């Protein structure tokens, strides 16, 4: 795909602090000459415009059947977005997962964002790819002002952007579209492989935590219709009889003049099936007395309140990775009795097909989403081998799952490397480090738009509520 790509023959200084040179024939053009600021609001016609969101995967329709996050009482101050418009979040840029989006849709978006229509001389998809490169590296940092790290409209309008000739912009867009199809195909295939490996992992866990390690053990009816028999010496008890279920902190509370302290807290995106995703952990300030009610303890099993139906009730063991860490109210901390259940065994039980079926059958479901609650979690019937047998089961699982877990980790690493390569390649092309004109001309004739991104391509940690940028209620 990149064979034969070479630098341009001649370069010149770009004048930008993050970009040393650009091809000599490229212009450096102020944004005001490339984009027109659009400030039209929907007013009383809000019902005529679908609500849009700026996310890690571009601008997508917001699901109002099961709304998450902050919403205003009215949408009349939301801005109109048209196909080909670019949307920028020019505040809180360091904390915003994605600060730029290219819309293929007509709709409305929070007035806190800036909406621009591309002028005739610029290809909107080239402009998007360039500012995606800028956003990935948060290169606009020298332009921030104030506590909200805001870029003023006038400063952004005066900022110069590389502008190749129109036919070269088209070649760059065509090459990147083709390359992204290849990248996306690779990543989709790897994610399918991970799904199959996870199914294998779940089957191994289910067998161990519902039947134990001895195939000749005496059995008895479990009393659970979809489970069948279990070892005769195991107990069955509701989770609330064996574990304390701790609710999390509710965001957005006002504490008046109370003394507050900053604490880290876990969100739904931080809690994955069998593991934690702690690359991005947020903080909040609240009184110590409030924090103690939602403080995590080593050995807590973290469970999520909602998400995709097949991910409901996912959990993992907290090992004290962050000192004095809290959890949000969409995450429950389940604290097993030390005399009855090992935390690792409970986490494994929650990964079994038996547990998945329970939470699926008892969940409250809306379009593509499901949720549970403290009462339902408390009624989940635990299978309780003696503690020494729980230890033996976990030891056996560790050995049996080693190759599967290794394969999953290796495949995830391959995806990560491919994503890093995509980011690097895009940066080199949109900044003129590599010339793709000849390569683009050799590509087969095909529609120039990328294939649509589907829900199946979104990872657990990319849930909409976690990648939403800015503040929907700030308009």
Distance between the termini: 44 Å
| Number of E-state strands | 28
Question: What integer is the average pLDDT?
Answer: 88
Structural class, from secondary structure content?
Answer: alpha+beta
Report low-confidence residues grouped into runs of 5 or more.
447-475
What fraction of the residues are assigned to beta strands by DSSP? Answer: 15-25%
Q: Taking Cα atoms only, what radius of gyration do you get, to the nearest Å?
A: 26 Å
Keywords for this entry:
475 residues; alpha+beta; 12 helices; globular
Task: Set down the secondary structure blueprint.
Elements: E1 11-16, E2 19-23, E3 27-30, H1 31-34, E4 35-38, E5 52-55, E6 58-61, E7 79-81, E8 86-88, E9 100-102, E10 107-109, E11 114-118, H2 124-136, H3 153-158, E12 160-163, H4 166-211, E13 219-221, E14 229-231, E15 235-238, H5 239-242, E16 243-246, E17 261-266, E18 271-272, E19 275-276, E20 282-286, H6 288-292, E21 301-304, E22 306-307, E23 315-317, E24 326-327, E25 331-336, H7 343-350, H8 353-362, E26 364-366, E27 369-371, H9 374-379, E28 381-384, H10 387-430, H11 437-441, H12 464-467
Parallel strand pairs: 17-24
Antiparallel strand pairs: 1-2, 3-12, 4-11, 5-6, 7-10, 8-9, 8-11, 13-14, 15-28, 16-25, 17-20, 18-19, 21-23, 21-25, 22-27, 26-27
Helix pairs in contact: 2-10, 4-10
Tell me what you see in this structure:
The protein is an alpha+beta fold and 475 residues long. Helix content is 33%, strand content 22%. It is built from 12 helices and 28 strands. The strands form 11 sheets. A 4-stranded antiparallel sheet has the order 4-11-8-9. Helix 2 (124-136) packs across helix 10 (387-430) and helix 4 runs antiparallel to helix 10. The longest helix is centred in the middle third of the chain and has 46 residues, at 166-211. It is globular, with a radius of gyration of 26 Å. The model is unreliable at 447-475 (pLDDT under 50).
